[in-house]
Amino acid sequence: MPPPAPYQQPYVTPDVTPAYGVPLYGQVGYQNPAFSVEAQHWQGRARTSLILGILGLLCCGLLGPVALALGMQAKNSLQRLGVMEGQTMALVGMILGGVATALWLLWTLVSLVSR
């Protein structure tokens, strides 16, 4: 068996060749971006945006702007990473946060004018 030349695949005898070939040194298999730590972080932010949007709509309108901002950040980051999981939660959180903010501002305006 001849010694392998530098920067080339190692020599493998034909009878022990793996089914998919020999990986190069340092080569890693396919990794799904949805399982990365950064993607999981932004998916959690999208979930938080959805929860804050619902709470902002139901009880406290001040949570609306927070849900809107978190949803926008999470959706943009997940799109940048190429991850689909969590984008819908971020979008719904943005919508609910926007509606909660608009209702809170309308309620504040009506209460100021009615005095």
Shape: rod-shaped
Q: Tell me about the biggest sheet?
A: none
Low-confidence stretches: none
Number of H- or I-type helical stretches: 3
Tell me the fraction of residues in β-strands, as a range: under 5%
**What is the percent of helical residues?**
55-70%
Q: Helix and strand string, N-terminal first? A: HHH
Mean pLDDT: 82
Mind telling me the C-alpha Rg? 25 Å
Give me the secondary-structure category.
mainly alpha
Alpha-carbon distance between the two ends = 94 Å
Number of strands: 0
InterPro entries: DUF4190 (IPR025241)
Transmembrane segments: 50-70, 90-113
Organism: Chloracidobacterium thermophilum (strain B)
Domain DUF4190: 46-106
Your description of this structure?
It is a single chain. With 115 residues, the chain is mainly α. The chain has a domain at 36-113. It is 59% helix and 0% strand. It is built from 3 helices and no strands. It has helices at 37-58, 63-81, 87-113. Helix 2 runs antiparallel to helix 3. The protein is rod-shaped. The N and C termini lie far apart (94 Å). The model has no long low-confidence stretch (mean pLDDT 82). Residues 46-106 form the DUF4190 domain. Keywords: Membrane, Transmembrane, Transmembrane helix.
